[in-house]
Give the backbone structure.
Amino acid sequence: MSRSSFILAVTLLVVAGSLAFMISFDRDHDEIVSAASKHTSASENRASTASRQESRRAQSSRNGATSLTLPKSTTSHLNADQRARVDAILSLTRRDSRKQLDQLSRQYKLSKEQRREVFPLIVAHHDQAHPAMTVGGQPLPSIAPGTTLNDSLSSVFDSTQLDELVEAAADHDAWWEDVVGQLEVDLDTAIDNGEMVLADEDSPHPGVAVSDEPASGDGEASGHSGGNLFDLLGQ
């Protein structure tokens, strides 16, 4: 073999080896990239699934903490119409209580634990509260006669929240005093102007005479659900 042929053969071998190496490297690189991509996608899917599960658990926890129910044993003797009325009252009570809970949460920045403690107190002070009601499967807390919601909240609030609660109550009382005072002024003015006339003492309606004119109003029906749970449940 001539020298030039030998050099050419060696050159071809080097080129062939380089090409084989490059092809093998590209294939390995593609496999690594593909594996990494699959791993990243799997990780993202697991993270997304975990996030959805956590969101569902959080939502379930919130709903559980503000769930309001009646044991089936308390409604088993009712007919379909009575059960529908009970469900309507229960739904209204739940909606009112959750709305008030959200208002208190915004006003006093309640923690999650405080929300869980406050909601049963709100329900217990609702005008449709019934001893058979349960919140999160637990009976309502007992409320001593004459106790207000603010009195009950004082056992849950911290010192800063209590100060804000007392201040808000004072502002509310002052507002009502202004309203009542203005109503008294308006009444006195109406009597002085002859728009209203004091009734005789022998009148069946002592105080201010009742006008014969029809009362003004929008004519809309009351939003009250009708009846109460004590009447419907027979307790």
Summary: Confidence is low (pLDDT under 50) at residues 55-63, 208-225.
